[in-house]
Amino acid sequence: xxxxxxxxxxxxxxxxxxxxxxxxxxxxxxxxxxxxxxxxxxxxxxxxxxxxxxxxxxxxxxxxxxxxxxxxxxxxxxxxxxxxxxxxxxxxxxxxxxxxxxxxxxxxxxxxxxxxxxxxxxxxxxxxxxxxxxxxxxxxxxxxxxxxxxxxxxxxxxxxxxxxxxxxxxxxxxxxxxxxxxxxxxxxxxxxxxxxxxxxxxxxxxxxxxxxxxxxxxxxxxxxxxxxxxxxxxxxxxxxxxxxxxxxxxxxxxxxxxxxxxxxxxxxxxxxxxxxxxxxxxxxxxxxxxxxxxxxxxxxxxxxxxxxxxxxxxxxxxxxxxxxxxxxxxxxxxxxxxxxxxxxxxxxxxxxxxxxxxxxxxxxxxxxxxxxxxxxxxxxxxxxxxxxxxxxxxxxxxxxxxxxxxxxxxxxxx
Length: 414
Prior knowledge:
The protein is α/β, with parallel strands linked by helices. It is 36% helix and 15% strand. Mean pLDDT is 91; it is low at 214-231 and 410-414.
């Protein structure tokens, strides 16, 4: 089959896990003999990153990557942001309408624009990687520093330094969504929250996956091995963007009175300097900076647990899967898709406040057997359900169901 993936960001021009998953799925389909074209917006990356796009990396077998580079600079993403239309992106129309695709799959099209959903004649899928369909800032995270309960989109956009998207008050989004045959929700939570926000989508829950084929052994060493160049002792790990919504700042106080236990923080973002100031004088809080994806699993393998303290609604963070692949448990805030993953797998502990976080940390340090049991539970769930084979099997079943509906003249959004 021939696929086209359309996404705003794609490695190496990306900022988060959604783009990494697109790369992972493209490689998996290519490995199975399918042709995959990936189209992403290099203009958007350059504007948000504030610099040149890094050189393209050689794609895996059967995968081709097309960068949208208009020559218009910041005007291209701004025009799309303000109109919802794929202005300055005419090559995308040509690719979608002349590529002979069986499937066109949209991933995070925030700066591609919903107007692009009309282009091309194929089964059309949309994976809900974040809450962009119901939130201009994608996170349902308000200017006041809390999850969004009562939308005030104009105020939030202005406080975030972004112009409001008045096109959302027109019928463009709903008309465009009718072009999608099926929405893929990585968690039940994300399907439900879109429904409660007024978008009752034709959504099917399809969890994401990581591919351990050729990766490190599933067996995890005992906790407390430390990292290269440091005294071997137990450590907990945070991996993610260093922005307030991800909650890394809520972790530091828990390690002030635990000098014999390390907190490793991997990632970068606009809160990095503030976090370092908050941790000044704490030798057991270590900032690793941006860590290559291939190193995340190694860090997880040696950690007592991965800490996932997000204050915003996560959808289905794949860093949790990385921890489970290494038989490491997860200590997560009881919120959104994170809580759903922990409950479904029984692969970790949930907390709601600082006291609950401290109790979870102390429990895992005190009871190594519990740490190992939870890690094995998460690993088992990964093997049984959150793996490439199961994802691709269900993915193709969904495609066939959509194609059958088209053959008899029935659309999933009818």
